[in-house]
Amino acid sequence: MNRLRTTIVTISLLLAPVAMAQFGGKAGFSEALKPDLLPRDMTMIVETLKLEEWQRPIVQSLLEDYQISFKTGTDALHQKMQENARKQTGGASGVRGLLAPIEAWAPEKERLYEDLMSSIKSQLSENQQERWPKFERAVRRSRSLDDSDLAGEGVDLIFVIRQMQLQPDVVAVAEPALDQYEIALDVALKARDAKISSLLPKFSEAMDTMDLIAGANLQDQIILTRIDVRQVQDDSIEKIAAVLPAPHGQDFRTRALAQGYREVFQPDSLAGFFAAVLNLNDLTAEQKSQVQSAQASWNDAFVALQNRMLETTRMEEPKKAQRKTLALAAKRAEKNGTAAPEVPADPMVPLRNEKNKLVQETREGVLKLLSEDQIDRLAAGTPGLHPPPPASFSAGQGPGATKTKKAGDTQDTNSNAPKDSKAVE
User: Fold this and answer.
1) CA–CA distance, 287 with 235 (Å, rounded to integer)
2) Distance CA 234, CA 305 (A)
3) Long-range CB contacts (< 8 A, 24+ apart) of 305-310?
4) Which among 44, 175, 230, 333 could bridge 338 via Cys, Cβ 3.0 to 4.6 Å?
5) pLDDT for 160-178, tens place per residue?
6) How would you label 210-235 residue by residue, b for 16+ Cβ within 10 Å and e otherwise?
């Protein structure tokens, strides 16, 4: 499997600068490399179908046979793609020939999956077969959510509920909403995956002819189906949270949004800082009141900024493929000396900058409330929470003005977001 992935990467390099990602992200090509059921799914099979002890080794054997057949198929796919890659002379021409083995493998991959599912179903009792539709939905979630491209699209709310380890009576309250979610998500995933599969030949043709406009139009069609999936997720988060008793509803909503929108709902980057400050044993009553007031202001501002980032992500992230296409067209125009299209700025950049500035200003404001000795003890006892640089204080402005800053003081915790010095675009 790793050799096959290496071949895919090699082919992508052969196509540079017109890589697959510039024609619609994943676009379903990566799905060719993934088995539809894995050995780790045995637990899901047992739990969802309520298998008897005697059935388990039989199903396990069927799953192992499927893995062997799948590997045989992907080994042949790997060999064929390598043969085609050796014939490639460079550039973007011949892309359809390079990707043809993937398109030819797709029906065989589906046949192997259908044979496996049919074999498993034949081992079931009548009562177990009544659970079959639920099992099919669980499998589809497992194999399809990984192919998500938008924030919020790929979260599995059933898994979030399991992570919470709620009491059975609490889960029972949410069961109708969870069932509705399963069915609605399944419909959206099937529509999305069918659209992607139907467009794969056209993606190959667009890459073959280096037709960026056609590729962007195809991507727009897929994005609409991805938005539909994300909408089901967003709506279901609110519906499930509403029926769960307190405090579980808000806990579920927080967990689900954090898993779906990872950049937006990062951990509070000042929570540890405020805890350390308030833990200083010689804070005066006035200092404590001022710090708590600053913490309340930070919490309000942080939540408000998160909400703005969430709405911006939902509105603007679907346009990222268009921005990527325009950026590539602008580069080509610059190289050819022709008029370049205008590339819209990423609207998340100013919000990231605003967040970084808010973190820094809040921290500096709190440090101004402390004595020099308190700042020294805070820095010594809490790595990474050092006082700001001298430039942050004017002469006589407050204690700590002579302190030096250590690296990493105001970095945002989001490894995917630009750092302070590079965020402005």
Assistant:
1) 43
2) 19
3) 305/351, 305/354, 305/355, 305/358, 306/264, 306/265, 308/351, 309/263, 309/264, 309/348, 309/351, 309/355, 310/257, 310/261, 310/264, 310/265
4) 333
5) 999 999 999 999 999 999 9
6) bbbebbbebbeebbebbbbbbebbbe
Q: What is the pTM of this model?
A: 0.76
Q: DSSP label at 340?
A: P
Alpha-carbon distances, residue 353 vs 305, 319, 328, 359, 363 (angstroms): 11, 21, 25, 10, 16
3-state secondary structure of 372: helix
Give the CA-trace dihedral at 408, 411, 416, 421, to 10 degrees.
-90
DSSP per residue, 386-424: PPPPGGGS-TTSSTTTTPPPPTTTT--S-TTSPPGGG--
Q: Which of 329, 318, 317, 320 is nearest to 213 (CA)?
A: 329
**Mean pLDDT of residues grouped by 10 in the chain (425 residues)?**
46 40 52 85 93 96 96 90 73 63 88 96 95 94 89 96 95 96 97 87 74 80 94 98 96 96 93 94 95 97 96 91 76 78 85 96 96 90 54 40 39 40 37
| Phi, psi (deg, nearest 5) at residue 111 | -65, -40
Three-state DSSP state, 112: helix
Return the half-sphere exposure (C-beta side, CA atoms, 13 A cut-off) of residue 406.
Answer: 9
Count CB-CB contacts under 10 A for residue 372: 14
Can you tell me which residue has the tokens 């402390």?
370
pLDDT digits (tens, 9 = 90+) for 204-224: 777 777 777 787 788 889 999
Nearest-angstrom CA–CA distance, 29 and 10? 14
Helical (H) or strand (E) element with 349: helix 348-367
CA 182/CA 189 separation, integer angstroms? 10
Alpha helices for 145-211 (secondary structure H): 157-164, 168-209
- How much is the pLDDT for 200? 77
Residue whose token pair is 């409330």: 369
- Structure-derived torsion over alpha carbons of residues 366, 372, 374, 379, reported in degrees to the nearest 10: 80
